[in-house]
């Protein structure tokens, strides 16, 4: 896919040297608008559920750690979702070809942070399962303003890098290495979060 070829060198250089990369204007604008609309509609229809933290027996909703609501995606939910999932698969194939990561699958969900929500500093890799290899977050917020908060804060060594969740911005980072958090947002904040997974 052309849109991935266009960003290939930047993505691979940054991921392999720093462990994270930001790509702006990743997908067609109309697709981002459609995905944002769908996320809001799905929330209004009651399809998003409060996200939990931890795995298996330790799994629980803890809004003092994480305040977003999510819905996992599957092929066939809508044309826009199919298009997004196909793009992420194309990205996965590119990462495998260029960086030999052996990524076998992707999992993805909508995320909606209501006003006041945040996600405390964490790593995306679970202690008992190391299949999550590269994390991706695609933001869906048109007209985002700097004073809304809601930045993704990445920790690169000891340096904090704050990334505004503006529409059509994609963040990719190494799941096992990059500590990160979502700062409290003042307004509703929409995104698509995903993980490229290896076989374990
Ligand atoms: O939405 C973001 O910027 C990051 C979300 C996140 O860290 C997660 O869902 O694990
Ligand atoms: Fe995360």
TrEMBL record:
<dbReference type="GO" id="GO:0031418">
    <property type="term" value="F:L-ascorbic acid binding"/>
</dbReference>
<dbReference type="GO" id="GO:0031543">
    <property type="term" value="F:peptidyl-proline dioxygenase activity"/>
</dbReference>
<protein>
    <submittedName>
        <fullName>2OG-Fe(II) oxygenase</fullName>
    </submittedName>
</protein>
<dbReference type="Pfam" id="PF13640">
    <property type="entry name" value="2OG-FeII_Oxy_3"/>
</dbReference>
<dbReference type="GO" id="GO:0008198">
    <property type="term" value="F:ferrous iron binding"/>
</dbReference>
<dbReference type="InterPro" id="IPR006620">
    <property type="entry name" value="Pro_4_hyd_alph"/>
</dbReference>
<dbReference type="InterPro" id="IPR051559">
    <property type="entry name" value="HIF_prolyl_hydroxylases"/>
</dbReference>
<dbReference type="InterPro" id="IPR044862">
    <property type="entry name" value="Pro_4_hyd_alph_FE2OG_OXY"/>
</dbReference>
<dbReference type="GO" id="GO:0071456">
    <property type="term" value="P:cellular response to hypoxia"/>
</dbReference>
<keyword id="KW-0408">Iron</keyword>
<keyword id="KW-0560">Oxidoreductase</keyword>
<keyword id="KW-0847">Vitamin C</keyword>
<feature type="domain" description="Fe2OG dioxygenase">
    <location>
        <begin position="104"/>
        <end position="198"/>
    </location>
</feature>
<keyword id="KW-0479">Metal-binding</keyword>
<dbReference type="InterPro" id="IPR005123">
    <property type="entry name" value="Oxoglu/Fe-dep_dioxygenase_dom"/>
</dbReference>
<keyword id="KW-0223">Dioxygenase</keyword>
């Amino acid at each position: 896919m052309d849109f991935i070829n266009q960003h290939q060198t930047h993505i691979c250089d940054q991921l392999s040297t720093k462990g994270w990369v930001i790509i702006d204007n990743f997908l067609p604008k109309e697709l981002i608008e459609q995905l944002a609309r769908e996320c809001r509609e799905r929330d209004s229809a009651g399809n998003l559920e409060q996200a939990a933290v931890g795995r298996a027996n330790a799994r629980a909703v803890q809004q003092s750690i994480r305040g977003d609501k999510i819905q996992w995606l599957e092929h066939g939910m809508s044309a826009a979702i199919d298009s997004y999932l196909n793009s992420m698969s194309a990205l996965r194939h590119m990462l495998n070809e260029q960086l030999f990561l052996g990524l076998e699958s992707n999992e993805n969900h909508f995320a909606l942070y209501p006003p006041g929500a945040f996600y405390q500093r964490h790593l995306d890799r679970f202690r008992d399962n190391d299949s999550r290899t590269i994390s991706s977050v695609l933001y869906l917020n048109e007209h985002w303003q700097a004073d809304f908060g809601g930045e993704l804060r990445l920790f690169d060594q000891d340096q904090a890098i704050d990334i505004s969740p503006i529409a059509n911005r994609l963040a990719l980072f190494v799941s096992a290495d990059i500590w990160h958090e979502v700062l409290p947002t003042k307004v509703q904040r929409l995104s698509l979060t995903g993980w490229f997974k290896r076989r374990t």
